[in-house]
Amino acid sequence: MFQIFSDQASPDQGRVRLPLLREELQEQGLTGFILPRADEYGGENLADYAERLAWLTGFTGSAGTVIVLRNKAAIFIDGRYTLQVRDQVDTDLLTPVSFPETTPAQWLKENIKEGDVIGFDPWLHTAKHAEQLEQNCIKAKAKLEPVSKNPVDSIWSDQPARPSAPIVPQPFELTGRNAEDKIQLIADKIADKADATFITQADSVAWLLNIRGADVPRAPLPLAFAIVTKSAKAYLICEEKKLPRETCKLLPNNLTVVAPKELEQFFTGNEADAKSWLIDLTLTPQAVVSMLELSNAVLVEGSDPCLRLKSAKTPEELAGMRSAHLRDGAAMVRFLSWLDNVAPTGTVDEIQAAKQLEQCRTETGCLKDISFDTISGAGPNGAIVHYRVTETTNRRLEENSLYLVDSGGQYPDGTTDITRTIAIGEPDAEMRACFTRVLKGMIAISLARFPQGTTGAQLDTLARHALWQVGLDYAHGTGHGVGSYLCVHEGPQNISKRGSVPLEEGNILSNEPGYYKEGTWGIRIENLVAVQKAEVPKGGELAVHEFETLTLCPIDRRLVDTNLLGIEELNWLNDYHERVFAELSNDLEEDERLWLAEATKPLHKS
User: Fold this and answer.
1) Which InterPro entries match (predicted)?
2) Residue-wise pLDDT tens digits, 28-39
3) Other beta carbons within 10 Å of 188
């Protein structure tokens, strides 16, 4: 099993460890400390050594920041974790603060006093974020101080070692573009702006050099930095012991390996022969920026040049994603048919269901990891958007309730992410009405045609419209980008109220509206979609895009109120189910095929 279900954290941690941290801060001459859930590489998936926020506070969400002052402390979470933070954190010691309504920088300005010295780890904060924090400290006549050693590391006596998993190549037939060509693309992209660029995100490095690793859970990433010059020289900053001989043979000839401990000397000695550096200040650690400034480099602010190129999948990457979704869809059908058989017995719980689903994926013979810890939420636990089941929170799937399962797999040819909400027993009218309104939003995105240059924010309203009409909504984005055997959450594209990046051909996104009735149940339906060119309608004047649906898995017909669906929406659902049966049925056992035939039968207006 990839996923474990033990309680990894609890509110008791804060009661013991916050006083220890305050003692350490006093030793270091600090009156406060800012700790984000982050590592040096800016990723969401952290190795065990970097899970400092969970160790200190008990909070295990995928995003958050804590600020600890002498007499107060706050933990910043977004709408996904409003409920979870109350269960995992001692709120008498740590006040939950909603982000982005209040940012850490804003809170800091309002809660520190003249003369305070607030510490931060410059490897865990981007240059842009550090600048915002410093400005607000200055306004309060306080000082923001970089620490040479993270004070949490000083009190974490059994902190795990840093990972050193071997780096492996990702074959050309799955990438469609070799590393030399990618390096040249980046070189050309920066040539008129700067002499070199520093690439900090591990998934950008993995994409650039066609490498994968196993340094973090749930994503096939090596923890490494990269540098590319305008003359197409490249440097990989990682421990040489992570590079097996066979991998080295397949690396580009214009690539040099640099040990992390030599990075400052690399900049000082100007080994890259670069006077100016293109730096994404929203991604690059403040520590790296400080090194460059000490070397008298000229910094040119810009975006990570890998991001847009990485997000526009090649035909080979798209083909791999389709293959992965066929495999994953068959595994989902095996799981759902099993669930329908055993759920009526009243013996199935969230952990048993999550284990069974992982087993179904493992039986494909291709699963490398799950793409995130399965969200297996029965009844009220389904209303916790990023719920993680543990032995303490585990619930049975009860009669006449809803079960929400959000899961995915990492396969060598693609990454999957799918959510289905399942009726256990007989759903009531409210469940069916809310489910159908969520479905209408998902179908609206699926059917959308939009001009080139359209952003995610412009599409987001389509997914919420049916819910808004009855005064409902959900506190998360409608869709995030997804990598090609990389991270299940990939930027810069997304569908959300803040989605400012135009969607491009080859982008892969999730399509996942939802609705959550706190303390009762949750509903979410999620497919992955790929942006593709659409035929210009007769008489049309604009080039348009549309979505190709990648995910193949039935949507629970028992929860659909066909009276709330328009004809076009009903046709989409029936056509989708017809496609699901046609593409998956040959990979199933007879009993599973019969279940799928029933689950994909056409629906009609009542």
Assistant:
1) Creatin/AminoP/Spt16_N, Creatinase/aminopeptidase-like, Creatinase_N, Pept_M24, Pept_M24B, Peptidase_M24_C, Peptidase_M24B_aminopep-P_CS, X-Pro_aminopeptidase_P
2) 999 999 999 999
3) 12
